[in-house]
Design a protein that fits this description.
- The chain has 95 residues and is α+β, with helices and mostly antiparallel strands.
- It has one domain: Alpha-Beta Plaits (2-Layer Sandwich).
- The chain has a four-stranded antiparallel sheet with strand order 2-3-1-4, covered by helices on one side.
Length: 95
């Protein structure tokens, strides 16, 4: 999973069909767009997405403007289970 933070609003953020095809080839299966008054966040994940080696490609797809872009990489992931709220940390790669 990668979170890309973009300054400003999402009005100029355009993912056309070519960009979406490139995203799909990277193994990305899910995109979420979030925002507040100052930032837009694009959450990118997929079962075959290699965040450590492909994040620069995703950054280039969404940062076609001169707006500053920051990227956050996942440091860990936890699965929360059932009524007993047992949790099981998954192995993650230190970046």
């Amino acid at each position: 999973m990668v979170v890309i933070l973009i300054s400003g609003d999402e009005s100029n953020l355009l993912l056309d069909s070519r960009a979406l095809e490139r995203i799909a080839r990277l193994g990305i299966t899910s995109l979420a767009l979030l925002r507040d008054d100052d930032l837009v966040a694009l959450v990118v994940e997929g079962w075959a997405f290699d965040a450590a080696n492909s994040r620069h490609v995703v950054e280039s797809l969404v940062s076609s403007t001169d707006r500053p872009v920051r990227t956050l990489q996942s440091l860990g992931h936890m699965v929360i289970e059932g009524p007993g709220l047992q949790s099981r940390p998954e192995r993650t790669q230190r970046l």
